[in-house]
Design goal:
It is a single chain. This protein has 633 residues and is α/β, with parallel strands linked by helices. The protein has 22 helices and 30 strands. The protein folds into three domains: 162 residues, P-loop containing nucleotide triphosphate hydrolases (Rossmann fold), CATH 3.40.50.300; 174 residues, CbiD-like, CATH 3.30.2110; 184 residues, no CATH class. Strands 6-7-8-3-9-10 form a six-stranded mixed sheet, sandwiched between helices. β7, α6 and β8 form a beta-alpha-beta unit. The relative contact order is 0.07.
Length: 633
């Protein structure tokens, strides 16, 4: 353990606010090397103000901040950067930057004016990426990965800065439970092995309990209490801090029945459910408990890969006449998600096996894989890898409890699975005879973006596994109708609908190694790509008129044309204005070239890209040079 317990950051009478309003007043604090200090308190208590003040990003109204024994106001920005690394709430866009390059920004305080990194700098960048579990993201575009992955890259950027004080404002906000726990482990490791102090603002009280040596509780802009986790979590103090009724934060035992885990989407609170994979693992655990211990459990429970615990009662409890097999079922709860498998009984039969280990099979109502490119090989039951692992771990836990050293055979079956599968994508994907047992997180999030992008990625992988290297991509039905009009459906090239998730589809195309891509879409969707916007949903961005104005101006349009374009309600109306002013073709050509540039960059240099822009009213508007050759072939 390297740290010597010296004071690395100290505040004396720290007072700060915005304009004439004081938000934080009179905070006295010292943080030592080897210590994790957590900031907690209700919204508006002053946590972010405190962090911005000690980071030198918010002018103080009073008091002093000492960093490594020196008044913060007497330090240059370079000196501060070498001693303190700060990660605030919110994530930079990072367009056209790889994750490794984003992390490397943490080394800039140590470079010259040109910002050129040495081989030693890059070694420290790679070490920080590896420490945060982000090494496999190094070459991916920063704006093309998930929020949780971005947070890990930004944490790596903070670490490779080699600070004495690491300041983190709500760093767990974008992380799932696995990476939250890994964050805690990384922080504990850093403080134990380096001369480092960590100041972290958190809302997740369980993480606070796990990681903090001391906790500063802020309320109404003042330090309400400072103490150890044992002191802060005792005597109902937290309920007073957050103005909650007595007993509100007492842990409640999970109860069977309706799953009570929620997310917010578009301003609504939506109840989550659990996957068919979770159901299969729970049913297998229940049947194994009866087989090995002689009694049916009242409930079964497991912790899902995402974190929440699911506890349920069992249905259809049966034991074979000779006592060698037990079977039961768990009812699929999809929460507020629209899911064809909602309400199905997912069942498992468990038998003792002659060989050690756990053998997992699919029975009636569970589909079988007939085409390559899926999670399981051809001929196997469509029980994906994560559900198989969940089933295996659930049975191993029962075996340990029952002191059973032998093997088990489990067969998953779904009454009514054949009929339900006809209403899913399974027939199209080559899964025959039933539904798939799915779930990477164990939890169903209503209207999950991840579920949609996973479906798109699965279709792309399957076409690639079947030998296709050329692909037609279109956002939706308008594109499909247009391509049929161009006889594109006779080419024998797969046509994949990607909805608004063009960026995610291009990332998968690049990763798989497709060689040729034709992107055909309605101008109302694809015009956004000319601005580098790869998710075309209006909730993400709607700059269609602004892009028309920009390219009209480049084509020589005046103020009157720009004003009329900004008043248009639809892209077809914009096209009418451009037609009237004789600017349609140069504007469309400019938009096409910009879209081609952005799409080619995202798809990678090894994929040849062509573009078609069209309108339902005006027909073909623009296409790149090689489209006719692609369609001819």
């Amino acid at each position: 353990m390297k740290n010597d317990g010296s004071v690395l950051l100290e505040t004396r009478g720290l007072t700060a606010g915005y304009e004439k309003k004081i938000v934080l007043q009179g905070v006295e604090l010292s943080v030592r090397a080897g210590e994790v200090l957590a900031l907690i308190g209700p919204n508006g208590a002053g946590k972010s103000t405190f962090i911005k003040s000690i980071a030198g990003q918010l002018a103080r109204s009073g008091g002093t901040v000492f960093l490594c024994g020196k008044d913060l106001r007497q330090m240059t920005p370079g000196e501060r950067s070498e001693r303190m690394s700060v990660l605030l709430t919110g994530q930079p866009a990072g367009e056209l930057v790889t994750c490794r390059e984003m992390a490397a920004a943490g080394r800039y305080p140590y470079t010259g004016r040109l910002g050129i990194l040495s081989p030693e700098d890059w070694e420290k960048v790679d070490a920080a990426m590896a420490r945060m579990g982000a090494a496999d993201l190094a070459d991916l575009p920063f704006d093309g990965i998930s929020d949780g992955q971005r947070q890990r890259v930004l944490l790596a950027r903070a670490l490779c800065q080699e600070p004495k004080v690491l300041v983190l404002d709500e760093p767990a906000s974008f992380l799932d439970i696995r990476y939250q726990l890994e964050l805690v482990a990384a922080l504990r490791s850093l403080t134990e092995q380096e001369d480092l102090a960590v100041i972290i603002s958190l809302h997740e009280l369980d993480l606070v309990r796990r990681c903090a040596d001391r906790i500063l509780c802020l309320k109404d802009g003042r330090a309400d209490r400072l103490g150890s986790a044992a002191e802060i979590f005792a005597d109902g103090y937290l309920e007073q801090l957050y103005d909650l009724p007595a007993g509100s934060l007492e842990p409640a035992a999970p109860a069977p029945g309706k799953f009570s885990h929620y997310i917010r989407s578009e301003g609504k609170q939506l109840r989550c459910g659990y996957t068919t994979g979770t159901c299969a693992a729970l049913a297998a655990a229940g049947a194994a408990a009866r087989l090995l211990m002689g009694v049916w459990p009242e409930t079964v429970s497991l912790r899902t890969p995402k974190g929440p615990v699911v506890q349920v009662g069992l249905e259809m409890q049966e034991i074979s006449e000779d006592g060698t097999a037990a079977r039961c079922g768990v009812r699929k709860d999809a929460g507020d998600d629209v899911d064809i498998t909602a309400g199905l009984l997912i069942c498992a039969e468990v038998r003792r096996a002659q060989e050690p280990g756990i053998l997992i099979r699919g029975g009636r109502g569970v589909g079988r894989v007939t085409r390559p490119g899926l999670d399981q090989p051809v001929g196997e039951a469509a029980i994906n890898s994560v559900p198989r692992q969940m089933i295996r771990e659930a049975l191993e836990e029962v075996c340990r409890t029952a002191e059973h050293d032998g093997g088990l055979e489990v067969t998953v079956f779904v009454p009514g699975g054949e009929e339900a599968a006809e209403k899913t994508f399974n027939p199209k994907l080559g899964i025959e005879g039933g539904i798939s047992i799915l779930g990477t997180s164990g939890i169903v999030e209503p209207m999950s973006r991840q579920a949609l992008t996973d479906t798109i990625a699965l279709e792309l992988r399957q076409h690639f596994a079947e030998g296709h290297r050329r692909l037609i991509l279109t956002p939706g039905n308008y594109g499909m109708d247009y391509l049929r009009g161009r006889d594109a459906d006779t080419l024998g090239i797969p046509v994949v609908k990607c909805s608004n998730f063009i960026g995610e589809a291009l990332d998968e195309i690049r990763a798989l190694g497709y060689e040729e891509l034709l992107l055909a879409g309605h101008i109302g969707k694809l015009v956004k790509l000319a601005g580098g916007i790869m998710n075309t949903h209006s909730r993400q961005a709607d700059c269609r008129r602004e892009l028309f104005v920009t390219y009209a101006a480049l084509a020589g349009a005046g103020r009157d044309t720009a004003s009329r374009l900004m008043e248009c309600a639809t892209t077809d109306a914009c096209i009418d204005v451009l037609k009237e002013d004789g600017l349609l073709q140069p504007v469309m050509d400019g938009l096409r070239d910009a879209i081609l540039r952005y799409v080619s960059e995202r798809a990678g240099e090894n994929c040849h890209v062509e573009i078609i822009l069209f309108s339902n009213v005006h027909g073909t508007l623009a296409e790149s040079e090689g489209v006719k050759e692609v369609l001819r072939r």
